[in-house]
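Board notes (copied after class):
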Amino acid sequence: MKTYSAKPTDIKRKLHVIDAADKTLGRLSSQVAILLMGKHKPIYTPNQDTGDFVIVINAEKVRVTGKKVAQKVYYRHSNYPGGFKSITLGRLMEQFPTRAIEYAVKGMLPHTRLGARMNRKLKVYTGPEYPNKPKEKTEKTKVKAEKPKEKTAKAQAKEIPKAKAKTTSKAKKSK
Protein backbone atom coordinates (compact mmCIF):
# COMPACT_ATOMS: atom_id res chain seq x y z
CA MET A 1 0.00 0.00 0.00
CA LYS A 2 1.34 3.43 -0.94
CA THR A 3 1.55 6.35 1.45
CA TYR A 4 -1.15 8.92 0.76
CA SER A 5 0.04 12.37 -0.25
CA ALA A 6 -2.52 15.17 -0.40
CA LYS A 7 -2.70 17.23 -3.55
CA PRO A 8 -3.77 20.88 -3.51
CA THR A 9 -7.03 19.92 -5.23
CA ASP A 10 -7.87 17.44 -2.42
CA ILE A 11 -7.66 20.06 0.32
CA LYS A 12 -10.99 21.43 1.58
CA ARG A 13 -10.64 24.24 4.12
CA LYS A 14 -13.14 25.06 6.86
CA LEU A 15 -13.44 28.07 9.14
CA HIS A 16 -13.17 27.49 12.89
CA VAL A 17 -14.19 30.22 15.35
CA ILE A 18 -12.70 29.62 18.80
CA ASP A 19 -13.68 31.55 21.92
CA ALA A 20 -10.59 32.12 24.09
CA ALA A 21 -12.50 33.35 27.15
CA ASP A 22 -11.28 31.60 30.34
CA LYS A 23 -9.04 29.14 28.43
CA THR A 24 -5.41 28.53 29.26
CA LEU A 25 -3.01 30.15 26.77
CA GLY A 26 -0.86 27.10 26.03
CA ARG A 27 -3.69 24.60 25.72
CA LEU A 28 -5.64 26.93 23.45
CA SER A 29 -2.56 27.61 21.31
CA SER A 30 -1.83 23.92 20.79
CA GLN A 31 -5.42 23.30 19.62
CA VAL A 32 -5.18 26.24 17.22
CA ALA A 33 -1.81 25.02 15.87
CA ILE A 34 -3.25 21.56 15.18
CA LEU A 35 -6.15 23.12 13.23
CA LEU A 36 -3.78 25.39 11.25
CA MET A 37 -1.48 22.49 10.31
CA GLY A 38 -4.36 20.17 9.43
CA LYS A 39 -3.29 17.37 11.78
CA HIS A 40 -6.94 16.76 12.67
CA LYS A 41 -7.67 15.62 9.10
CA PRO A 42 -7.07 12.15 7.69
CA ILE A 43 -5.43 13.71 4.59
CA TYR A 44 -2.68 15.39 6.65
CA THR A 45 0.57 15.59 4.71
CA PRO A 46 3.63 17.16 6.39
CA ASN A 47 4.86 18.96 3.26
CA GLN A 48 1.44 20.40 2.28
CA ASP A 49 -0.64 23.10 3.93
CA THR A 50 -3.75 21.02 4.67
CA GLY A 51 -4.96 23.17 7.58
CA ASP A 52 -8.09 25.21 8.10
CA PHE A 53 -8.75 28.89 8.78
CA VAL A 54 -8.98 29.80 12.47
CA ILE A 55 -10.50 32.89 14.09
CA VAL A 56 -9.85 33.38 17.81
CA ILE A 57 -12.17 35.79 19.61
CA ASN A 58 -12.04 37.23 23.16
CA ALA A 59 -8.23 37.18 23.23
CA GLU A 60 -8.22 39.65 26.12
CA LYS A 61 -9.93 37.08 28.37
CA VAL A 62 -7.35 34.30 27.94
CA ARG A 63 -5.71 33.22 31.20
CA VAL A 64 -2.36 31.81 32.26
CA THR A 65 -1.40 29.73 35.28
CA GLY A 66 1.09 30.48 38.01
CA LYS A 67 3.10 33.71 38.07
CA LYS A 68 3.54 33.92 34.30
CA VAL A 69 1.81 37.30 34.10
CA ALA A 70 4.74 38.87 35.97
CA GLN A 71 7.58 36.44 35.19
CA LYS A 72 7.20 35.47 31.53
CA VAL A 73 9.18 37.86 29.38
CA TYR A 74 9.15 38.29 25.58
CA TYR A 75 12.44 39.52 24.07
CA ARG A 76 13.25 41.16 20.75
CA HIS A 77 16.20 42.97 19.22
CA SER A 78 16.22 45.74 16.61
CA ASN A 79 19.70 44.71 15.27
CA TYR A 80 21.08 48.07 16.35
CA PRO A 81 23.51 48.54 19.24
CA GLY A 82 21.52 48.76 22.48
CA GLY A 83 18.35 47.65 20.68
CA PHE A 84 17.50 44.79 23.07
CA LYS A 85 13.93 45.18 24.34
CA SER A 86 11.75 43.09 26.60
CA ILE A 87 8.13 43.09 27.76
CA THR A 88 6.35 40.97 30.37
CA LEU A 89 3.25 38.96 29.54
CA GLY A 90 1.10 41.16 31.81
CA ARG A 91 2.19 44.33 30.04
CA LEU A 92 1.81 42.67 26.63
CA MET A 93 -1.77 41.66 27.48
CA GLU A 94 -2.56 45.26 28.48
CA GLN A 95 -1.10 46.86 25.35
CA PHE A 96 -1.61 44.18 22.66
CA PRO A 97 -3.96 41.42 23.89
CA THR A 98 -3.88 39.52 20.61
CA ARG A 99 -0.10 39.13 20.40
CA ALA A 100 0.21 36.66 23.27
CA ILE A 101 -1.89 34.11 21.35
CA GLU A 102 -0.18 34.94 18.05
CA TYR A 103 3.31 34.41 19.52
CA ALA A 104 2.31 31.18 21.26
CA VAL A 105 0.75 29.69 18.11
CA LYS A 106 3.64 30.82 15.91
CA GLY A 107 6.07 28.98 18.17
CA MET A 108 4.06 25.75 17.70
CA LEU A 109 4.03 25.89 13.90
CA PRO A 110 6.92 24.75 11.66
CA HIS A 111 9.67 27.37 11.42
CA THR A 112 9.73 27.31 7.62
CA ARG A 113 8.01 29.00 4.68
CA LEU A 114 5.22 26.46 5.05
CA GLY A 115 4.74 27.50 8.69
CA ALA A 116 4.56 31.14 7.62
CA ARG A 117 1.77 30.24 5.17
CA MET A 118 -0.08 28.36 7.91
CA ASN A 119 0.26 31.34 10.25
CA ARG A 120 -1.46 33.61 7.70
CA LYS A 121 -4.67 31.63 8.18
CA LEU A 122 -4.87 32.71 11.83
CA LYS A 123 -6.85 35.80 12.83
CA VAL A 124 -7.03 36.90 16.48
CA TYR A 125 -9.51 39.50 17.75
CA THR A 126 -9.69 41.19 21.16
CA GLY A 127 -13.45 41.08 21.71
CA PRO A 128 -16.37 38.90 20.64
CA GLU A 129 -16.97 40.82 17.41
CA TYR A 130 -15.02 40.12 14.25
CA PRO A 131 -15.32 41.09 10.57
CA ASN A 132 -17.03 38.77 8.09
CA LYS A 133 -19.18 37.33 10.85
CA PRO A 134 -21.98 35.21 9.34
CA LYS A 135 -25.23 37.10 9.27
CA GLU A 136 -28.11 35.92 11.40
CA LYS A 137 -30.81 34.17 9.45
CA THR A 138 -34.05 36.09 9.22
CA GLU A 139 -37.33 35.26 7.59
CA LYS A 140 -37.43 36.56 4.09
CA THR A 141 -40.67 37.97 2.80
CA LYS A 142 -41.69 36.58 -0.52
CA VAL A 143 -41.54 39.16 -3.24
CA LYS A 144 -44.08 38.73 -5.99
CA ALA A 145 -42.49 38.33 -9.36
CA GLU A 146 -43.32 41.23 -11.61
CA LYS A 147 -45.18 40.42 -14.77
CA PRO A 148 -43.27 41.27 -17.91
CA LYS A 149 -44.52 44.49 -19.43
CA GLU A 150 -46.60 44.08 -22.55
CA LYS A 151 -45.14 45.73 -25.58
CA THR A 152 -46.95 48.69 -26.97
CA ALA A 153 -48.15 48.83 -30.56
CA LYS A 154 -45.29 51.20 -31.48
CA ALA A 155 -42.63 48.83 -30.08
CA GLN A 156 -44.15 45.91 -31.99
CA ALA A 157 -44.28 47.99 -35.17
CA LYS A 158 -40.55 48.82 -34.84
CA GLU A 159 -39.59 45.15 -34.45
CA ILE A 160 -41.45 43.96 -37.55
CA PRO A 161 -39.58 46.11 -40.08
CA LYS A 162 -36.24 45.06 -38.60
CA ALA A 163 -37.09 41.40 -39.11
CA LYS A 164 -38.19 42.08 -42.72
CA ALA A 165 -35.00 44.05 -43.38
CA LYS A 166 -32.87 41.10 -42.26
CA THR A 167 -34.68 38.68 -44.55
CA THR A 168 -34.45 41.00 -47.54
CA SER A 169 -30.72 41.62 -47.08
CA LYS A 170 -30.11 37.85 -46.95
CA ALA A 171 -32.09 37.39 -50.14
CA LYS A 172 -29.98 40.00 -51.98
CA LYS A 173 -26.72 38.33 -50.84
CA SER A 174 -27.82 34.91 -52.05
CA LYS A 175 -28.59 36.20 -55.59
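Comment from the instructor: The chain has a mean pLDDT of 87. DSSP finds six helices and five strands in the chain.
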